[in-house]
Amino acid sequence: MGYELELVIYPGCLASTELYACELSARRVLDALEVPYRDAEGLSCCGMPVKSMSTLAWLYLSARNLALAEEHGGDLLTLCSVCDFHISEARRVLKHSRELRAKVEELLDQEGLRYAGRARAVSMLAVLAEAAESGKLAESRGLSGLKVAAHYGCQTLRPSDMPRPDHPEAPGRLEAIVKALGGEPVDYPEKLSCCGGILVYTRREAALTLAGEKVAAAQERGADLIVTPCPHCMKMLDQSQKAAAGVVGKPLSTPVLYATQLVGLALGLSEEELGLDLNSSPVEKVLERLG
Length: 291
Fold this sequence. Notes:
Helix content is about 50%, strand content about 10%. The protein is α/β, with parallel strands linked by helices and about 290 residues long. The longest helix is centred in the N-terminal third of the chain and has 17 residues, at about 55-70. The protein contains 14 helices and 8 strands. It has a 4-stranded parallel beta sheet. The two termini are about 30 Å apart. It has 2 domains: about 5-125, Glutathione S-transferase Yfyf (Class Pi), Chain A, domain 2, CATH 1.20.1050; about 140-290, Rossmann fold (3-Layer(aba) Sandwich), CATH 3.40.50. Helix 3 (about 55-70) crosses helix 4.
């Protein structure tokens, strides 16, 4: 695998402050796949939380991270789908608006930073998919025929009018990764449905209903586990699974793993290396199947 620019790892706020297994498993898998990456000091929030209040603040924060990546001659390797989307969108806005770009560049200049527009966001899903396409995952011990339901997450796929890590209506990269690892993808009607992640802050019960119905649908189709590339979705489907079961009135007991954790297990990495002890769903079911 090769990239035009070196990858600068960008965990995002959620992986850095709460969902540690996201970053932990990503780093271990990148090492195992021999994908070079580096760290950059001073990375900050992508700006998503302030976007609805200040367009300029959002653009400044996203451009700031891209400028730091450019200082290291690299692209931003995003571990979070939400961050990937907002940084990618900011890059597009700055490309087409001279006025906003001038304002952002003025703010960055106060920090001694320069945004040239070279760096872009590269999702971890894309890196794993390229590993599958190149045959690197064929060297793994495999998933022993585990049935895996893919959950992409809204901002991994949408909006469709800008480049996203996979097709907005017919994604297939997670399934390709599962197949490369010797697993069996499980199709289910709710695959493209929202997990409720963003809604949870204003309408918690509605959000938990969305999460619960999605997990239930995967269970009913015989999935042994659900895999997702997004920490925001992981928070709903994994951490909130018990609460969601109570809301939808259905027994839910499906393991949920990050895509990096699933790949790591197939590559023979340990539970500790992948942070599986930090998952809330019953991941021991997967571990028992894999021996």
